[in-house]
Every structure is written in structure tokens, then in C-alpha cells.
Amino acid sequence: VLERILSENDRVASANRDAFGRAGVRAVNLMSAPGAGKTALLRRTLEALGDVRVGVLEGDIETSLDAEALEGFGAAVSLVNTSAGFGGECHLDAVMVRSGLGRLPLAELDLLVVENVGNLVCPAEFDVGEHARAMVCSVTEGEDKPLKYPVMYRAADVVVVNKVDLLPHLDLDRAVPGQHRRREPWRHRARAQRPHRRGRRRLGGLAPVAPAADGVTPAGRRVA
Ligand SMILES: Nc1nc2c(ncn2[C@@H]2O[C@H](COP(=O)(O)OP(=O)(O)OP(=O)(O)O)[C@@H](O)[C@H]2O)c(=O)[nH]1
Ligand SMILES: [Mg+2]
Fold first, then answer.
1. What is the DSSP letter of 165?
2. Measured CA distances, 193 to 176, 204, 218 (Å)
3. What is the pLDDT of residues 70-109, one digit of tens each?
4. Ligand 1 within 6 A of CB of 218
5. Are 180 and 148 a contacting pair, CB within 8 Å?
6. Which ligand gives the minimal distance to the CA of 40?
7. Residue 92 pLDDT
């Protein structure tokens, strides 16, 4: 059943990716634990991006709070509440993203950012048609999170470490994530990137990935 769900998701994700390609839009799936700072990062990024035409597909279980927080930053925003017709899901899947795309002027955008539902587990398992995956890791979450939630960390092309201003107030051992990185197979990503494509059973079959070449993200996605 899981494989059927994932394969249907992949079919729609592929259609989403085709739609992005036709419109000339690059899509980023932005993920993190609840409250790590996705919306705050988006606000700062939108300020910094200047002329880049950005659309945001905002995913939340309930409320339009984040969509409202992005008003006035020049981005077209489409809200998808997963409680409305999607059973209150804890992640966005490709069908949900597709449902929100019609409210965005895709052909007029350069970049689409999908702010996923705050959750360190499920969002990593669903391809939504993105070209790259970014995650926000707040230092307040503790240094053990890459070990406890490995699928998300392995799936990310880029990890933004946030709330570093709070480090003086935290008992966080900054050396520990580095040790984990050496000890844990963070570089063994290639087969683990897309559990949503190949099914969870394949997660055991990790294989080393070559160092990033020009234009190729650590997770193997080509980014213009
Ligand atoms: N001190 C500090 N607070 C931050 C930083 N970034 C975000 N915050 C605060 O953290 C809280 C959560 O930030 P959001 O941007 O809403 O986090 P989010 O990941 O979008 O949250 P969800 O969408 O609910 O999952 C807010 O009160 C932000 O102001 C930071 O760098 N430092
Ligand atoms: Mg948010």
C-alpha cells in the first residue's frame, strides 16, 4: 500500500516538475521542525532577492498565519491548509502542491519556494516536484537531531543553521554534530535521498555519493 501511495505521489510530482520546467521556474522544498525558522528565513530571503520573481506555496495544517506573515514582501503566495480536504496531513505531498499551484502565476515566476509543514519526519518522504531541498535546523533543537531524524538530514541539499544568536543561552556542544558527521554516513546519501521514490526498504542500501561537481547539489539534483 505504501509503495502504491508513493508511486502515485511520484507520478504527480513528476507532472509538477514538468509544469515548473515549462514555466521556467526552479522549485525549492523548504522543510524543518516546527518553529525552526522557515518563515523567518523566507522573509529575510525575499528582502535580499531583489529582482527575482518569487512565489511561495505555504503549507500549514491550519491557519493562514504564515501566508499573512509573507504579505508585503513582493512574493505571490498560495496557501494550502492540509486540514482542508487532506485529512490534516503533517506534510505536503505532490497532490497538495498541485492543488495550490493554480493560485500562482507560475509563468511569471523565477523561483517557487514550498514552505512545508513543520515536521522533521514525513516531509522528507514525499517528492513534491522540487528541484532542490533545503532545511532549517535551529540550534535550539539540540545537537543530536541529525542522528535522530536522519532521513530529513540526508534528503536535504542544503541545511541552514538558525537561531545562532541564542547559542550563549544554550548548553549546546557545537563539536558534537561534527563528530556525528564523521561517525555517521552523512556522505552516504545517494540511495537515501528519495525514499519516496524507491520505498523505505531501500533505505538500508546506502551507497557513497561522489563529491559535488559544479551545478550538482550534494543530493544529486542539478540546480541552475
Ligand atoms: N532568536 C531567534 N529567533 C528566531 C530566529 N529565526 C526565527 N526565530 C523565531 O522563531 C519563531 C518561529 O519562527 P518561524 O519562522 O515562524 O518558524 P517556522 O519554521 O516557519 O514555523 P512553522 O511554520 O510553524 O513550522 C518565531 O518567533 C521567530 O521570530 C533566529 O534566527 N533567532
Ligand atoms: Mg512557518
1. G
2. 23, 12, 10
3. 999 999 999 999 998 888 999 999 999 999 999 999 999 9
4. no
5. no
6. 1
7. 97
